[in-house]
Amino acid sequence: MADLPDSPDVFLSESEVLDLVMRFLVGHGLSREQAAPVASSLAKAQKDGCRSHGLQRLPGVLDTIAHPRFDKRAEPELKDVTDAVAQVDARFGFSLPAVERGLPSLVAKAKALGISMLAINNGFHFTALWPVVEEIAGHGLAALSMNPSHGWVAPFGGGKGILGTNPMAFAWPRKNQLPYVFDFATSAAARADIALYKQQGKPLPEGWGLDADGRPSTDPTAVLAGAMLPFGGHKGSALATMIELMSSAMIGDRSSRQSQAFDAGAKAAPCHGELIVAFNPALLAGGSVTDDSEALLDEIARQGARLPGSRRYRERQASEKQGIRVPGLLYSRILALMPD
Amino acid sequence: MADLPDSPDVFLSESEVLDLVMRFLVGHGLSREQAAPVASSLAKAQKDGCRSHGLQRLPGVLDTIAHPRFDKRAEPELKDVTDAVAQVDARFGFSLPAVERGLPSLVAKAKALGISMLAINNGFHFTALWPVVEEIAGHGLAALSMNPSHGWVAPFGGGKGILGTNPMAFAWPRKNQLPYVFDFATSAAARADIALYKQQGKPLPEGWGLDADGRPSTDPTAVLAGAMLPFGGHKGSALATMIELMSSAMIGDRSSRQSQAFDAGAKAAPCHGELIVAFNPALLAGGSVTDDSEALLDEIARQGARLPGSRRYRERQASEKQGIRVPGLLYSRILALMPD
Predict the structure, then answer these.
(1) Are B42 and B54 spatial neighbours (Cβ–Cβ below 8 Å)?
(2) Complex-level ipTM
(3) All domains in chain A, ordered by first residue
């Protein structure tokens, strides 16, 4: 049914989605240890209605694992650097298995010392950051995560792409509620969004990009060949630069443009580092001031403002009732790429 | 000469500026320990051509020290919380003497463990964040600093001010160059800028604020009575919320709206907490990847993009040659408010 031209959506249980992705990845030669964290992340994204980082990413994995440096059976190596810092070398597998290897150490250190840091190196990265920071918040910790990508984004006032889309995610544990979580690229738009405008033959909104000569352009083809722009003018540009420095130079890994050079046109997921910082809010809270944070977050939602994460949480509830929606065409495409 | 109607600018040496501010503050009853870090910060800002946080702020100090809870002779109290965390109670003096009290501990902890955190509580805050993060970068560390303010800023999509202008500053140590430093408010514009538009009878740019009914407005008077907006849409709003949580609830101090309630119309500087995180980039750098950060920052500047901090550094050089420029009217006003 799913392979008809007007393929209707299919609805799968979470274990069916996990099974689908595991069959795909293991069938294509990945170790179960490499595949499982990726399957879990894609299933979470699909369940939360976050299409950009859900099953849609699965076919592209084939380009990544075809990269000459990708190791399908990589075993991440954890190094206990100091009482506050851990580092995991992903050894040219996916970045997520390395993150999972390091998380218990990050959490234990933050609980003991109030703050801790986890550096991931040499990981091919294409999964969303929010499932990881949400998981850390489940331990009662606040978490901040960031990474470079490829050098597609021009600095504000500049003309050539040298910064990455450099996402940043944050989670804050709430009392008796799912955590406050955001995850955004510091580029004005996602590269996939620009590709979508191109597909639909529509001009881009102003401020998304520059052509190859560094001039503002609303032509998606010109912008994909030129440079993307950061969100929020010089402030977003400064933030993107901070993320670039903190998650490449600071942890001894590739900058966005080095990651792009490393890709050498393979169209694999970017291979680089990732920084996660965890904080223990229980350590310093409880001064003489009444904690206003729950009332503040409730008030943001009450004003009708978008509380980051809330749409995903609504979709998550819906998926729990009706199953996880997978577009029929995507489902067919995954089945068609499934190894025998 | 400076008190003539067309008061020409005066040019002072750094020690003359420091002396001017010290006479002002000590003359108004502040202990030398409270006054000195504030004098140093105002002199640095004036020297760097950062007028918003320079001597222009000095007259307003009189409102702050008149707040019933302000302690002109407060002695900050340092608490060594864990091997990675220090906390200083400013005890209702200025926040900066508390920061200076805690900095050696922050720096030592970051050098030893790779990451550390300093929480400041109960400080009246009006000085720029950049001189502090720049100082930390002078020790070879990266630094991130943030604080709430008063509840003037509506969340993106909301209608009422509940978040602060919530600034964030970052410094990154460079090789043989002054550090990469930014310091920006997460509001679209500074409150002082809106007041300036009002003074000049000019309409505001779109996107700066809302009127008291939560509708977009370009009328500065309406926006000052209504709400300011965050920079960069929902992303800037998320960032402002993160800063609010991390520098109030996480460190057991007042949120922006609690700080505003605490002020009770006194028009003092906001009294709240401040968070500083320091990182030791030497700990994890030096992997197999050549550090691209210096070339990247050089390239940003070469593209003609504004490298944050570079304008201040140029002004600093000029001040070192010609003296620190102080507008004649401001100089007269300070002298007029100088106690006998």
Answers:
(1) yes
(2) 0.96
(3) 78-187+230-308 (3.30.1370.60)
